[in-house]
Structure to design on (148 residues):
């Protein structure tokens, strides 16, 4: 397996595993039928589709050559740091500021993006997050630090 397309093999198998997990876990909900779908119908269907798409990515990759995988540890750490920062600051800073902070930290992984772009990206993502989760889905989340 030294000359195989390991990036697509690992990515495809990861998608397959995620799809199988979702489909198996969703079995705990009522499945229903095609005419009367239960709560588990859609997640099972999506899990199966995701697993099949993962196989469509992984299987052909076993038969072609690929580049060796080079992990960018700094990029990985910054993106994971952004996720952790969001999780740790959501209740303290509120949804908008925690999202903006997370985007700024994660965007440090991109060497081509300048600070002006990072700020615009953070504002845009925070606005979309607010609209989707607070207004659209009516989730009860602190929006600002003073709205706790």
């Amino acid at each position: 397996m030294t000359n195989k397309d390991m990036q697509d093999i690992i990515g495809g198998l990861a998608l397959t595993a995620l799809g199988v997990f979702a489909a198996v876990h969703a079995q705990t909900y009522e499945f229903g039928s095609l005419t009367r779908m239960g709560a588990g119908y859609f997640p099972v269907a999506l899990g199966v589709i995701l697993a099949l798409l993962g196989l469509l990515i992984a299987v052909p990759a076993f038969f072609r050559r690929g580049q060796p995988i080079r992990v960018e540890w700094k990029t990985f750490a910054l993106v994971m740091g952004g996720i952790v920062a969001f999780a740790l600051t959501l209740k303290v800073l509120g949804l908008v500021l925690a999202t903006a902070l997370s985007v700024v930290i994660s965007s440090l992984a991109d060497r081509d993006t300048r600070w002006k772009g990072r700020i615009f990206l953070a504002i845009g993502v925070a606005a979309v997050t607010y609209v989707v989760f607070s207004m659209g889905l009516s989730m009860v989340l602190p929006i600002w630090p003073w709205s706790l």
